[in-house]
Amino acid sequence: MASTTLTAPVLPADHTMSTRAKWAVAGIIAGGGLAGLLATGSSALAAYFARRVITPSTQVEDQEVLAVVRSDDGLQLILAATPESIVDGVYSLFFDGGRGHARIGRIVSYSPAEHTVQREVEAVYSGELASARRGWWSGAAYADPAAVGLAAEELAIDVDGGQAPAWLIRAGAAGPAPVWAIMVHGRGATRLEGLRAARTARELGLDSLLISYRNDGLAPSAPDGRYGLGSTEWRDVEAAIAHALANGAKEVVLFGWSMGGAISLQTADLSRYRHLIRAMVLDAPVINWVDVLAHHAELNRIPYAVGRYGQLMLGHPVGRRLTGLAAPMDLKAMDWDARAVELRTPTLVIHSVDDDYVPYGPSASLAEKNPEMVTFEPFTGARHTHEWNVDPQKWDRLVRAWLQRQLAPRTNPGSVS
Can you give the C-alpha Rg of the chain in angstroms? Predict the structure, then answer.
């Protein structure tokens, strides 16, 4: 969920329906005749919506770059003002089809009248920024572990269909840490997303495994080439946990962003290692897919009944012919708002109340229904999965304090603290 994180996220960054798609649906409706008008049009639109949700797609360069300015303080960018580019914080701009990558910092000036914003360029990791004309905005602020000042080992984890690349960042030189952090990125994002949490995890004494999973462009694709929204990807997280346990870990902490949060919740529910998951830190997680899909249907001006029809396609065996899924998807089993009391893993949920991609309501509801296990920490002003980007000090402080409590030595039953 994008990541951007979503980070990219439930639907691609261009989540509004294209003009071509709208005319295609209109053509189907017009060509279906009066008798089949509603049924044909609704089915076509519902199928289109369902496929968009589960089909991996490339990033869209929807951020316009107007000029590169060299000042006494270094490089600055003048960008078209967008809902993302006018929010202060630290971000990335990917350009030239992803071959170029720059870290973008604070806002220098903003002109609502001219619809432009000028921001500092903190680093150019790759590409010729001066020639950039368009790109996409991301919360994955760093290019690799070295950009965070951390050494990492490149390794591969055995998963279904092959091997998935991962970074291993050690907490120290004294050997494997007893608890490892498994970083699970969101839909449309990559393992870069977890780098924002890597320093915090290291300072807590955790080794960090930043993983890839099916259909993310690094790990092997699923046989059907479709996202499972957590219902299939959790097996790749389980494989990462198995790797950690085989290499010295005793327990793990799952970090998940957007759809990575949904994947983490499924892992804590279904994995044979669920009893070894000490805690979870979820950033803007998808708690209830039905709620998120209904929200995106509304964003796309899709009638409620049609959006609901698309959801039914994802969960019905006959719908596989239209969606391409290898097996029906059980959205009810991934509704953790309804299953709140079943969650038995201590969980910190961080979610911005201004997230208009994955609304925060189910996150707050999960904590309200299961306060024993779930702690909810709201942010303000941040776009989807950009809580760290807006206020890294607050994010670090909250995660560090909460995890220190969870990682404290457990007392024996009946003993005096």
Answer: 22
Beta bridge partners of 374: 347
* Architecture of the domain spanning 145-291+317-407: 3-Layer(aba) Sandwich (3.40)
Whole-angstrom distance, CA of residue 388 vs CA of residue 319: 38
Mean pLDDT over 213-241 rounds to 97
Extended beta strands in 151-262, E state: 153-159, 162-169, 179-184, 207-211, 251-257
End-to-end CA distance of the chain: 41
pLDDT tens digit sequence for 140-168? 999 999 999 999 999 999 999 999 999 99
How far, in Å, CA of 196 to CA of 77, rounded? 23
Token look-up 């290291």 returns 202
**pLDDT band at residue 394, thresholds of 50, 70 and 90?**
very high
Number of CB atoms found within 10 A of residue 272's CB: 9
Give the tokens for residue 41: 């049009």
Distance, CA of 87 to CA of 68 (rounded, Å): 19
Residue extents of the structural domains in the chain: 63-138, 145-291+317-407
Which residue has 């997230």 as its token pair? 355
Mutual angle of helices 289-299 and 304-315, in 10-degree steps: 140
As a CATH number, domain 63-138 is 2.40.30
Is pTM beyond 0.70 here?
A: yes
